[in-house]
Amino acid sequence: MTNDKSQIAKPRVLLGMSGGIDSTVSAMILQEQGYEVVGVTFRTFDSIKESCLAKEKGCCSIESVMEAKHNAERMGIEHHIVDFRDTFRRCVIQNFIDEYMSGRTPNPCVLCNSHIKWGELMRVADEMGCEWIATGHYARIAERDGHVFLKTAEDTRKDQTYFLWMLTEEQLRRTIFPLGDLTKDQVREVARQHGYEKLAAKRESQEICFVLDDDYRAFLRANVPDYKERVRPGDYVDMQGKVIGKHEGYVNYTIGQRKGLGIALGQRAFVTHIDATSNRVTLGTYDDLYATELHFRPFHKRGIPVIADSQQPITAKVRYRSTPVEVKSLITNDPSTISSLIFSEPVWGITPGQSIVLYQDNLVIGGGVIV
What we know:
This protein has 10 helices and 17 strands. By secondary structure, the chain is an alpha/beta fold. A 6-stranded antiparallel β-barrel has the order 12-15-14-13-16-17. A 5-stranded parallel beta sheet has the order 3-2-1-4-7, sandwiched between helices. Strands 9-8-11-10 form a 4-stranded mixed beta sheet, with no helix packed on it. Helix 1 (21-32) packs across helix 6 and helix 3 (85-101) runs antiparallel to helix 4 (108-127).
């Protein structure tokens, strides 16, 4: 399957519009391909912040909602604003809080894509008579032996398949990624050609939309009612378990963190382990963060038996910006149990709560959450 559907009648397509350049250019491309585009913008978490638009921060903010509405009107696109704040808080924000309070580092974009941007988008598409749904993600779709897969984007620097691994085959069969074959520079050029100079010049942000100033610690303090009772000073320990100092509470640290530890050990120290139960944070060296094995669940697999005979190796990513590393051994179990994976070479900074995403021949063949 490709994103070129020129051989079929052009039905209505529901496009998720955030107000940013990617979804706006997606609308332009879909219109040029002859689709009847219906734009929808989600209210998931409203946070008004000065210069929000200039820095393209807060894709769910009031300012961006209005920007999406304005862009849709400018292009003559039917546009709707849908309030998903209650669902978003229950599904995404509560998981974000629970994971951090359990000593893990969550990836809220993965849940948001699966449960909100696709789960809710498909429901709204059905209500509005839209056969297809589309987003401005940098990803592609491919079909192999009857199975539909996510495929990495042409622009590997912007590829977002890591955040999309939870999408089901049913969801992918209805999805169009208009930007999958374009680079970010090409997308900016399309915006300029259509007279959207200001939008093309915006800087991007990697911040979480509901966490202001990228300060998750302040967010937790404001949103966990019993934060002060649960987060107290505790022990730093070395790799042998020896107490070497005091920290300010386990939730203030993430795996691989070096700065802001508040302790001098005569050498660079990194967080290597977080134990929420004992409130202990383990510190070690940079090299102590290398490992060849990890465990994860649940295991979402897609079409692995179909491509099991492929000569292409299976690779895996443990974070969005990491380089895929070849998998030496993969032991998968029932989704309710823990699966294990061994890399062919050591990988740095494996972090509980983050996603492990498996690839083969540029196709996403599975994923899970590191435990």
